[in-house]
Amino acid sequence: MRHGRRRFVAGFLALPLVMYAVLVLSPYAQAFYLALTDWRGVSARAEFVGLDNFARLLDDPQMWAGLRNNGLMLLVIPVVTILLALLLAALLTLGRSGRGVRGAGAYRVVYFFPQLLSVAVIGVLWQFVYTPNNGLLNGVLEAFGIAGRSWLADPALALWAVMAVVVWSSTGFYVVLFCAAMQSIPREILEAAHVDGAGRFTVFRTIVLPLVRENIQVAYIYLGIGALDGFALVQIMTVGPGGPDNATEVLGLGLYRNAFTYGQFGYASALGVVLFFLTLTLAVLVMRTSRRERIEVV
Amino acid sequence: MTIVKERLIRTAPPAPPPPHRRRVPRMGGLVHVLLVAWGAVVTLPLLWAVVSSFKSDAEILTSPWSLPTALRWENWARAWTEASIGRYFLNSVVVVGGALILTMLLGSMVAYVLARYEFRGSRLVYYLFVAGMAFPVFLALVPLFFVVRQLGLLGTHAGLIVVYTSYALPFTVFFLTSFFRGLPQAVAEAAFMDGCSHSGVFFRVMLPMAKPGLISIGIFNFLGLWNQYLLPLTLNPDENSYVLAQGLAVLAVRQGYANDWSGLFAGLTISMLPVLAAYVIFQRQITAGLTAGAVR
């Protein structure tokens, strides 16, 4: 009955495995080696230079600017996005003792819109929202009597302006995610707590939060990985790119510039290795710190 | 567990009607104010772009937040043809469509074999694919550029399609493997009894059964691929084969010099509306699919 089993398995795996090996696995493996060479792409010659590229990274002010900005994004973006999404999700689902607020579905649909736009659309759109003279933001602010700013040209504001766009574009997805998690909490538990006289905030802190903890953890990893990137928005929105006075320089931008503008492929690969270890560290840290006892609903 | 349990136990005796119920209506007002406020933050920029796409350049510069005096559809026509948004849009459809079909086909083939067949090295293959999720694309970028160039695929749609597919495979395989594992075995057994071949069982029995999972991961992949910017920027340098994301970014710079703001807003609107419209129509399936993808 199962003749040709081996041929079937091999036949199904061959093409995807070859593609994956050539286009994904081999580039990843090559990157680690290239990071140890001075390869500049033009000649086939690539000298092995050991850890020289990494030593050079330590003296590269743009790398430090990128590291500082990615670090700040890592501190700000996940926390703000998750808090905002938790608040909105709680308002949507927990109102009327767990039945959800009226029109919750419509709110969720609207909140989800930015998730559907490609990052290039978002970047171009917000570049114009931030335009000093005829942009939307300054127009709205001036209507309230607040003086407008040149958001993307001011070194003190540029990175915050970019971070606000990341929060704007990612909150909706996590609202939907957290709503789904909160809706799966049995209503009896919430009602019981209400009957007990527990206030909204107590219910949220002692019951809801522990039950959506795993989702928050997933959100933190996704948002953190996104915060270590930021390439597309910065590249599209800010001058240079990299902003005034390296204000919005990110590591990915440095990598791209070193590789495809300066042709320093070995050096750029070293930056890639740094990015890899940062991502890995983040994932391990988040998994570790939040591996607590799991709460089960009886 | 203990927290919840204790609370359940403590609730056993019926309590008197709680006094806090009376607070609910007043809170309700504040709740809606907050919810509407975020809704406005989300939609205002989008609406502004749509409204601006109908204005003249003079109107955009002098009264950027008023309504247009007339619906100038010619802005849209100009963006579609002169600014090549139409071509970029079609390029995106070809590349994303091709990559999506290929990803779904190859991803489900690999996942099915890994989930339903015991063979030597199956665990290794599984972990090879799953490991791909742990690496940032930036790490591969430089070598990938040279691999693609060596294959003669630089700047071609075929090149983008195979690269997109390869980088979408890890999550697709990961997601679908657990999905195929969860499907009942009995139907497949019956099909084998009836003399169905291995691939026959896959295409005629298992794939239809996996439809909910395929829809989830399909939507997830579509949005991910549609969102691509770094890969086309690196691997697709020829302006004629630009995808929408690249075209729009270049256009934003160029139209700034040409002072064709209305054309740019029209281009933006053209790139936003189809996906938003599709979402509003299919939103139930889309959100269900996407959150299923993230919860797993």
TrEMBL record, chain A:
Highest taxon of source: Bacteria
A Pfam family: BPD_transp_1
Residue ranges of domain ABC transmembrane type-1 in the record: 67-286
Alphabetical keyword list: Cell membrane, Membrane, Transmembrane, Transmembrane helix, Transport
UniProt xrefs under InterPro entries: ABC_transporter_permease, MetI-like, MetI-like_sf, TAT_signal
Cellular location(s): Cell membrane
Record-annotated membrane-spanning stretches: 72-94, 106-129, 157-180, 219-238, 265-286
GO cellular component, one term: plasma membrane
PROSITE patterns listed in its UniProt record: ABC_TM1 (PS50928), TAT (PS51318)
Main location, first listed in the record: membrane
GO aspect biological process, one term: transmembrane transport
Topology with respect to the bilayer: Multi-pass membrane protein
Signal peptide start-end: none
Family recorded in the similarity comment: Belongs to the binding-protein-dependent transport system permease family.
UniProt protein name: Sugar ABC transporter permease
Protein source organism: Sinosporangium siamense
TrEMBL record, chain B:
Family as reported in the entry's similarity comment: Belongs to the binding-protein-dependent transport system permease family.
Name this protein carries in UniProt: Sugar ABC transporter permease
Major subcellular location class: membrane
GO terms (BP aspect): transmembrane transport
Provenance organism: Sinosporangium siamense
A single cellular component GO annotation: plasma membrane
Domain spans labelled ABC transmembrane type-1: 89-282
PROSITE patterns in the record: ABC_TM1
Transmembrane segments: 30-51, 88-112, 124-146, 158-180, 201-226, 261-282
Keywords for the protein's UniProt record, in alphabetical order: Cell membrane, Membrane, Transmembrane, Transmembrane helix, Transport
UniProt keyword Oxidoreductase, yes or no: no
Superkingdom of origin: Bacteria
Subcellular location: Cell membrane
Membrane topology designation: Multi-pass membrane protein
Pfam families: BPD_transp_1 (PF00528)
Coiled coil: none
